[in-house]
Amino acid sequence: MNVAVIGTGYVGLVTGACFSEFGVQVVCVDKDADKIAALRRGQMPIYEPGLEDLVGRNVREGRLSFSSDTAEAVQNALVVFIAVGTPAAVDGSTDLTFIEAVAREIGRCFDGYKVVVTKSTVPVGTGKKVRRWIQEELDIKGSSARFSVASNPEFLREGAAIGDFMRPDRVVIGTDEGDEQALAIMKDLYRPLFLNETPFVIANVATAELSKYAANAFLATKISFINEMSILCERVGGDVQGVARAMGLDKRIGSKFLHAGPGYGGSCFPKDTLSAAHFARELGVDFEIVEATIRANKRQRDHVTQKIRAALGGSVAGKTISFLGLSFKPETDDVRDSPAIEIARNLVEDGATIRAFDPQAMAEAGEVIPQLVLCKDAYEACEGGDALVIATEWNQFRMLDLPRVKEKLAEALMIDLRNIYRADALTAAGFEYVSVGR
Ligand code: UGA
């Protein structure tokens, strides 16, 4: 089977590489010729564990290629995935400009049957629009070509995307009711997972589109819930990790996504919660839970920033802060909507000097906050710091050489926004220790 994946961002590239690993022929397409040239040289545009090897192997074995020629890729493919960006507009709605442009381009360049699948996270109803945009282009050229539209949302976590694709909790496929041909083709494409007994949710297009928002909004709600609980714990001397453990052992709740911290970030939860609230409002529905989740997340970022100010005597002006972790979570260089970045920016605006280190996201962070003093490792960042802030829980920050850190810092104060240390261990090592909800 031939597959074309349009858009070689995070989702498109991982999807294309993983399908080629299943044994199908994949062309990943992007308008950005420089990006395609770099990919052909084996250079990845993002840091994702395992991706470079996966791409390299499948290119060498002739199943994966890269192209800027959308028309040729679409003509040769039976299944065309749309995996272009869906940025948030200022009002929280989803900007479908790139989806429309690609759908129309697809419509202009085929004449045989295709299944056109949205992989990008798109508001409910987008499948219908994609169908209309393609049909309009076919009508303009007088073509009677047939096509199906499907929705196959991705549930990939950055940093763990390849494992999530190869061993997913479930695969969701939405097709028009009665469209047996599209469903059979999609099942065939996912045959290795079918044989693995991965659960498949077969639904209509709207259900598939909504299921992605439902999952992300629910996970974001879990995080905002435990973050609010952490503020209550701080008021009464409770320990949010104990509360989370007690909750999580209830199998109906589950222990995942109950880590209190500086709030959720990244390119998905903030955008998808806003988008879900927005399209619900447009449909005349108040999605009250998700609205509260968004507000609580904003408040949590402010709350931990205030915690840093308070630990430094009420103001950070003129202070030096050693700052570890800039990406929105470990194992990625992605700083989009990273709580660490927002907090660092607030501190810079307050007049602090930030000595920062992140294992992968230095260049990206330096671009968005040019005032950061970028250090070569955690210990260099600690030099002369009035406090050490841990903002992202990279593994290497879990095992810092505490005597060395203490020696470098001007003040032995650690503000651990990810709760990766134990209070008693830090106190024993001579630190003043501040964490979240404990
Ligand atoms: C998320 C979902 O987990 C994926 O299933 C989904 O496919 C993806 O969005 C997407 O829509 O494409 P991702 O954004 O890569 O994946 O990262 P997560 O691991 O979910 O973390 C998101 C944020 O929540 C991070 O800022 C993380 O630090 C925060 N988080 C997560 C917490 O604060 N506490 C937790 O317990 C878990």
Structure description:
This protein is of the alpha/beta class and 438 residues long. Among the domains are: 2-203, 3-Layer(aba) Sandwich (Rossmann fold); 213-294, N-(1-d-carboxylethyl)-l-norvaline Dehydrogenase, domain 2, CATH 1.10.1040.10. It is 46% helix and 14% strand. It is built from 18 helices and 14 strands. It has helices at residues 10-21, 33-40, 51-60, 70-76, 97-108, 126-140, 161-166, 180-189, 191-195, 205-236, 240-248, 269-282, 288-311, 339-349, 362-368, 378-382, 402-408, 423-428; strands at residues 2-6, 25-29, 64-67, 79-82, 114-118, 147-151, 171-175, 200-203, 320-324, 353-357, 373-374, 387-390, 413-416, 432-434. The strands form two sheets. Strands 3-2-1-4-5-6-7-8 form an eight-stranded mixed β-sheet, with helices on both faces. Strands 11-10-9-12-13-14 form a six-stranded parallel β-sheet. Strand 5 (114-118), helix 6 and strand 6 (147-151) form a beta-alpha-beta unit. The longest helix is centred in the middle third of the chain and has 32 residues, at 205-236. The radius of gyration is 24 Å and the shape is elongated. The chain starts with a strand and ends with a strand. The model has no long low-confidence stretch (mean pLDDT 97). Bound molecules: uridine-5'-diphosphate-glucuronic acid. The site of uridine-5'-diphosphate-glucuronic acid (UGA) has 21 residues, from helix 10 and helix 12.
CATH topology of one domain: Rossmann fold
Topology, number of strands: 14
Strand order within the widest sheet?
A: 3-2-1-4-5-6-7-8
User: Which geometry do the CA atoms define?
Assistant: elongated
Report the uncertain regions: none
β-strand percent reads 5-15%
Class by alpha and beta content? alpha/beta
